[in-house]
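REVIEWER CHECKLIST
Item 1: Sequence provided? yes
Item 2: Single chain? yes
Item 3: Sequence as submitted:
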Amino acid sequence: MHCRKTQALCWIIFLLSVAASTSSYAQSRFVTTRGKDLISADGKPLLLKGINLGNWLLPEGYMFKFKTANSPRLIQTVINQLVGEDEGRRFWKTYRDTYVTQEDITFITTGCLYQMQLPQDWKVKATGV
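Item 4: Structure as written out by the authors:
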């Protein structure tokens, strides 16, 4: 009976030591949190910088300050109703060509940013419209 208790205790100690070493190994390889802060693998605060290029390839109603036209299709419909379909196509081509420029991309990529979010409309990818 005493031998079983000793053996069980040894297994518990072994499993706890494996769990502790695995936990410390994982913490040393991955980003963790401390409160609201992200902590890098070396234990220092991890400061991430990013940018969102929303509204460029995916028109968003709140960015246009529209109340009811809140989807890309509805926004395109409003623009077409205001200026006609031909002028609407020219508007969207100019809009996409100038909303974010090559200079903007160069600035973004040299700014030590870690993330760039680029929401896209399937229609832009599929048809270029």
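Item 5: Key structural point noted by reviewer: The mean pLDDT is 80.
Item 6: Recommendation: ____
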